[in-house]
Design goal:
Chains A, B, C, D: Keywords: Hydrolase, One-carbon metabolism. Four copies of one chain form a homotetramer. With 264 residues, chain A is of the alpha/beta class. The first copy, chain A, has seven helices and eleven strands. Helix content of chain A is 35%, strand content 27%.
């Protein structure tokens, strides 16, 4: 099919999941005009129906629109904005959204709009609902493709997660499934582990239980305090989150049930 | 005190635990005759009483007696016996104890006595009790200093753990506290983690919850099956266990509550 | 072509080298009878000629014949024999060849023939020639597919390298291209590096300069002596060599000029 | 001595270099008033003379003055300024010096003075001399304790190196001693290595040959282009440089001949 249209495959990846005998393919090709693209879409639709297959056809040069959600911790925000400026992340960073005003200056410096979504009044549940309404508004306004939770520190509602699960990436400050929830470094310190980690995953309604995209770790010793772990952890978190976001933006990640296939 | 006896410090390590303001010291010195050793013991006893201090005075050249406990998996047994033969582990391996006869040939090849402790008859509890009686007998017979559970695959009784906790090292096939208990690689596969690990720890009555001595990890991907993880895990397990055993033998590990201080 | 013969692709890998615009493909498929295999060979020959393409068609279940070359260091030999016994390495280990008699017992224990190729008399050049003649004899006698230099400690002649370069794997005890040649850990110690490594590569006439298959490293510190490095290095060497050998046996490695493409 | 002055040791490290039988000690203590500090200085001077010993007595809370030297690459500059702002680096960043004007905005944003030292006219040697004169002026003006070459891309003169060797830290984009000099990622790509690295070291007159403080590596594969290596390398460089600078600022590094002792 690609051959007929004079397209050249520059890379292809293939994975057969032997637990369910499903086949996952990622094919990168060049030479597709808009017309070819439309024809391929049609042809794939037919094939997909015939073989009970899912497909996605994307143009690599088409930049995704992303929103970065933060609270008060700046390290992941800095990191993503710097990488974006250096051309590592092929995306439009449409907006930075935060439940605190502190990081506005950073967004300003990099020329990215910043919106504080803090809700001063109301019950916790009410405030959460109104904050998520703002997220939903931004989603429509900027035609967002991806939410990046760059140490956002808020648990999203089940409703929100269900709607946005496959395009919301969170960074958790432990090697999941160890140390789910808050105060992960404190828990690691108390358990006396010799390795700390960070995990980037898609968010689901079940806390810290979504499909894992990337994890990395660092050795620590008895002499490392919680403060030392937090410092080392910052290095882990930013690298792990950035990789996950980059792979997502480059359409390298396929979610299948509660796991990911990542064609690096 | 050491100076008076013409001893030279060749290494010292020092750690202040700021959560409880306890001080941990390890001092290596040369030049102590048997007489000096005895005098130091006396002097330390007095000091220890005065300052509510614990101390241990060991002779580095004094080899500890160890028993290796195995089941059917051979990789950790091979590894320990090879390292022992190459002079990496300064210890007498007094005996290999197993609840299965399969690994006898390996012990034979390395010239280490092998004892099968399998109990064909009786209730599970009864069999466990009798097996642990044999372990206790070996403990006395060989004047053992350390039990190494090299993939022993049996859960020890609370009684046994309480008596031997600070000189029984287990290797667990996950980065604890993730994936406690059996089938750790299966659980890792199901969770879709991107990193697998192994943990060496002192055994306590609470399963896989004892003080951690060493951990290490390896990256995996979506394409790794449970079988692949088991293979990669073998490399992790043997290295992590060997490090923990070596450090214990060299008196580098101090247990404090449910953690370890490891002076590497 | 595969479809016509009712073969199913279970995995495919693809790499386009953009420096020379060459395409490298590895396709694993099931369902090929002997007849299909023969037909595919014919068809591929025609295609290969037409497109100036190289191809290799192998049966995964066909075990390669390998010879392991050693000197006095046993750790890599043990490691390969244990992995072989555990089913990690799908190959026939036809013979262990050594310029020293010390490791015979190990080969015996694992039931692998051992041949000492030491030459007591003659000039160095003469001895080398005669030793390599024995290697050549073994190559024919056992229909060898691979020489594994498991710390062989002898430099092979240019002639030998040229004949066997693409099926001779060596393990070098540094992260090449640092510390080429002998005494690599001594050189690492003198330079004061904070990381040591090991490299598995195909041998070429130019010392330690052949295509690299795999490398790995470990952190060290100022307190590690050469002896400590040697000990840590053994762990690196055996893992790195085993991976390279396994990948070669599974036809995952393609040599292109002085580099490798490794489809892991 | 410390006991007499009511000082408490909170940490001590000890290393005996067995190649030269020299002893290296680092002792951290609390409770020293200015008077005690002065007394200790005097006492140590006497002892140092007596035992041919070198010593350094520093106040941990005394912040060192540092200058960051850059060219056009921003990643290490960003990283150091962010860490400084987050309190990871206990120092005064007195000035950013650059042979290009591009990074001025970054220094401005973080409120650090920026000085462009580019010399438009003159011979190469002449320009270098005048640039180094500006560095020397800054050294005196700000009472500098440390030059950090954060991808400065200029080779310093032998004279400059000799004067400032033990307080000038450079980040090199390879695991030294592999790939000395420029274009290290290109060289790594051409050699086909499977691991890339970065090295922080004190600068000496001999290019990339000074005492190594820290190194780290990352796995790469055949599919990584030079551009991919540069991207991955940025992550390595900034982490490795930041660790080396932090350790230097915390007086954890002792230079001995062409090596470092790092008490982490």
């Amino acid at each position: 099919m690609l051959q007929e249209h004079n397209c050249s495959i520059v890379r292809s990846d293939h994975f057969t999941d032997k637990t369910c005998w499903m086949l996952f393919l990622r094919i990168c090709f060049t030479g597709a005009t808009t017309e070819v693209h439309r024809d391929l879409h049609k042809a794939l639709q037919v094939q997909a129906k015939k073989f009970q297959m899912h497909y996605m056809l994307e143009q690599a040069e088409q930049r995704k629109n992303i929103a970065i959600l933060v609270s008060r911790n700046s390290h992941c925000l800095y990191d993503l904005l710097i990488r974006h400026k250096q051309g590592e992340l092929k995306a439009n960073i449409s907006i930075v959204l935060s439940n605190h005003p502190e990081l506005r200056d950073i967004a300003d410096f990099f020329g990215i709009p910043f919106r504080c979504i803090a809700q001063p009044d109301g019950s916790e549940q009410d405030k959460k609902r109104r904050m998520e309404d703002i997220l939903e508004d931004a989603y429509r306004e900027f035609n967002l493709d991806l939410f990046v939770l760059a140490r956002y520190m808020q648990i999203l509602s089940d409703d929100f997660c269900q709607r946005h699960s496959d395009h919301t990436i969170n960074i958790h400050h432990s090697f999941l499934p160890a140390f789910i929830g808050g105060r992960a470094y404190h828990k690691a310190f108390e358990r006396g582990v010799k390795v700390i980690g960070a995990t980037a995953h898609y968010t689901t309604a079940s806390l810290d239980d979504g499909p894992i995209i990337e994890q990395d770790v660092r050795r620590i010793s008895h002499s490392d305090s919680v403060k030392d772990m937090v410092r080392e952890g910052r290095d882990l978190e930013r690298v792990v989150l950035a990789r996950a976001v980059r792979w997502h933006l480059e359409n390298r990640v396929i979610i299948h049930e509660n796991k990911t296939i990542v064609f690096i």
